[in-house]
Design a protein that fits this description.
The chain is an alpha/beta fold. It has one domain: Metal-dependent hydrolases (TIM Barrel, Alpha-Beta Barrel). The chain contains 11 helices and 11 strands. It has a 6-stranded parallel sheet with strand order 6-7-8-9-10-11, with helices on both faces. It has a 3-stranded parallel sheet with strand order 3-4-5. It has a two-stranded antiparallel ribbon with strand order 1-2. β10, α9 and β11 form a beta-alpha-beta unit. α5 crosses α6 and α7 packs parallel to α8. It starts with a strand and ends with a helix. The mean pLDDT is about 95. Bound molecules: zinc ion (ZN). Zinc ion binds next to loops.
Length: about 325
């Protein structure tokens, strides 16, 4: 049994108590406006601003009612992260554990200060946010976030990956890396492993945005976790049916210990409280039901939604 603890905003928690987990989500975001001008995926801008604590609580209540217990809030520093706001949400809803993140998003989001900061400065900031608290509070984060671009790792992104590895070596905290359309995942895994990061503490994100088995297998063969975390994105990407079938193929190939599922519902259109949907409960209800219809038993559901996230998130003895 895993006796490690994960670091939620309200304190360390036994991994065994984390329960059904969404590994990559957002509750409060405010991306830099300049990003919307450069990146069409950030448009319309208003849709990417999540600024209602009240609505976040409403969404989490529905998630909890559907059996959800833990949500990893992966909004990085330069995307409008709001630690105090998240703590207020967590206090209002103690039945859901919220784990916050340190780290950075794509190079395009770096302002002058972060362009100039060196690896050591960024690593020290991450370590401080994990060990002491973020944004001049005593509330600590439990995950490190980094990001890479489309078929490239920008020097600023490489700087963050190196800092993340230093912070991992100091704290054992897990690292999540955003990929752009699933590209560069294998190279990120190699780079982090070379810097001493254990593959069980690496999660390569968004691999369901490019359902290319050859690419995904190359990442999995590095021994790291991957996530299919863009379910319900029928508007932009690929039907959930293909993703679930694909996930099932990966299980049949023996990769079940390395897979996680989430929604990355960081837009108003995905929240019922903003008048959209399907809300976070979509994963524990619709997606789990569909996986069971495909023949998944309780043990396998537990592995993907409880055990793998818990093993990844636990880092405190
Ligand atoms: Zn995200």
């Amino acid at each position: 049994m895993n006796e490690m603890k994960a670091q939620t905003l309200l304190g360390p928690k036994d991994v065994a108590e984390l329960g059904f987990t969404l590994i990559h989500e957002h509750l409060l975001t405010k991306p830099p406006k300049v990003l919307a001008e450069r990146d069409i995926s950030i448009q319309p801008y208003e849709d990417t601003v999540l600024d209602s604590k009240e609505y976040a609580v409403q969404e989490l209540k529905r998630f909890a009612k559907a059996g959800g217990r833990t949500l990893v809030e992966t909004t990085p520093i330069t995307y409008g992260r709001d630690i105090i706001g998240l703590v207020e949400i967590a206090k209002e809803l103690p039945q859901v554990n919220i784990i916050a993140s340190t780290g950075f998003y794509l190079a395009e989001t770096f302002d002058k200060k972060w362009c100039e900061a060196d690896v050591k400065y960024i690593a020290n900031l991450m370590i401080r946010e994990i060990k002491e608290g973020a944004d001049n509070t005593t509330y600590k984060v439990g995950v490190i976030k980094a990001a890479t671009g489309l078929f490239r790792i920008h020097p600023l992104e490489e700087k963050v990956l190196k800092a993340a590895a230093i912070a991992y070596n100091e704290t054992n905290a897990p690292i999540q890396v955003h990929t752009t359309y699933g590209t560069m995942g294998d190279q990120v895994a190699d780079m982090l492993k070379k810097e001493g990061v254990s593959p069980e503490k690496i999660l390569i994100l968004h691999l369901d945005t490019n359902l290319d088995k050859w690419c995904i297998r190359r990442v999995l063969e590095k021994g790291v976790y991957i996530s299919f975390d863009r379910l319900a994105r029928v508007r932009h990407y690929i039907p959930d049916e293909w993703k679930l079938k694909f996930l099932n193929d990966l299980v049949e190939e023996g990769f079940e210990d390395q897979l996680m599922v989430s929604m990355d519902a960081g837009r108003r259109i995905y929240w019922k409280s903003y008048g959209g949907g399907p809300g976070f409960e979509y994963i524990p209800t619709t997606i789990v039901t569909r996986l069971k219809e495909m023949g998944w038993d309780e043990k396998l559901i537990e592995k993907i939604f409880v055990k793998n996230p818990g093993d990844f998130l636990g880092f405190i003895r």
